[in-house]
Amino acid sequence: MISWLRWLNVSIRLHAEGESEMKLPLLDRGLSFIRWCGPFTEQFGWVSGLRIGVSLRHAMWAGDHGTVAQVRLPKWRQPVFLRSNSSDSEVFWQVFAEKQGYFEVRDDPQFIIDAGANIGLVSACLANRFPNSRIVALEIDPANFQLLQRNCSAYPQITPLKAGFWSHRAHLAVVNPEAAAWAFQTCEVDEGYSGAIPAMGVSDLMQELGWPRVDLLKIDIEGGEYDVFSGASLSWLEHVRMIVIEIHESVRPGVRELVLSTLRNNGFTDSRWSEYWIFERSPLTESGCIAGH
Questions:
Q1: Residue 166 belongs to what H/E stretch?
Q2: Distance of CA 268 to the CA centre of its chain
Q3: Phi then psi for 48, rounded to 5 degrees?
Q4: Contact 162, 136 (CB under 8 A)
Q5: What is the separation, in whole angstroms, between the first and last Cα of the chain?
Q6: CA distance linking residue 200 with residue 160, whole number of Å
Q7: Contact 166, 189 (CB under 8 A)
Q8: Separation between Cα atoms, residue 172 and residue 163, nearest integer Å
């Protein structure tokens, strides 16, 4: 208890941003920290929510860059691992505080593709929500992938793949290696290109994994969705029931209209959840997917 209270006190100090807030009474700073923890206390309860806030603050600022911190979530098989002083904490905030990992799904999905899985937080979240699902998590960056493997190691239903997601089998290269770990963009290159990374499309993954369909396709590939949805063949859409995608209009102008028009013309309806666009097939247009049951 004493150790935990000491951590809470340090977290309150870390939470104080700027010299003016540091001059506020400790009680005021404490209340500010508790308000900041609000999304976690609402979802996980007061005790667990504050513990998560304490751990996240330490992951954000207390460790040296690259030091791996742990955040424990109630009923999860293992902690979540985050690199200190990196974009990992922002990803954690999006997935859990903004609930990007908790979008509504009509039925329990069996076959899930997480394209652009980063450090595996959404994959692990989906594995906890749908324990009978099979999930393949694709990530191109070696450092992200290493942490993805660690975050998903307790979930045998997750298959990590160090690969990119594209409209077809190809090789990709990162065009902005200096970017934050959650913002890598790619382009297609020849196989012999230095640092080339293999990439696959939905049809390739289904064939390789022996899946009859894809119940949920989550895409967050920093503008690469333009290339996915402008591919020569979109026949793979017939086998997908639901698509959850973050559309990066600022990276690839015109991609929003491309994705919206393509999916609407192929029988999908759309809605929003946090930064995601959610596309679902209506029951009348699901016959090709349901045939795979």
A1: none
A2: 22
A3: -65, -40
A4: no
A5: 51
A6: 14
A7: no
A8: 9
The burial class, CB within 10 Å (0-12 / 13-18 / 19+), for 43 is middle
Structural tokens at position 249:
């209009």
Whole-angstrom distance, CA of residue 107 vs CA of residue 242 = 10
Per DSSP, the residues of 213-248 read -BSEEEE--TTTHHHHHTSS--GGGGGBSEEEE---
Look up residue 83 and give its two tokens.
């690199």
Q: How far apart are CA 224 and CA 35, in angstroms?
A: 36
Burial annotation 10-27 (CB, 10 A radius, 16+ → b, else e):
ebbeebbeeeeeeeeeee
CA distances from 111 to 33, 123, 240, 287 (A): 39, 12, 10, 17
User: Which pLDDT value is given to residue 63?
Assistant: 67
SS3 state at 8: helix
What pLDDT, in 10s, does the model give residues 93-141? 999 999 999 999 988 999 999 999 999 999 999 999 999 999 999 999 9
Please report the domains of the chain, with CATH numbers, ordered by start residue.
Answer: 2-85 (no CATH), 99-290 (3.40.50.150)
Strands 80-83 and 158-161 come out as: unpaired
Q: By C-alpha distance, which of 8, 3, 86, 90 is closest to 49?
A: 8
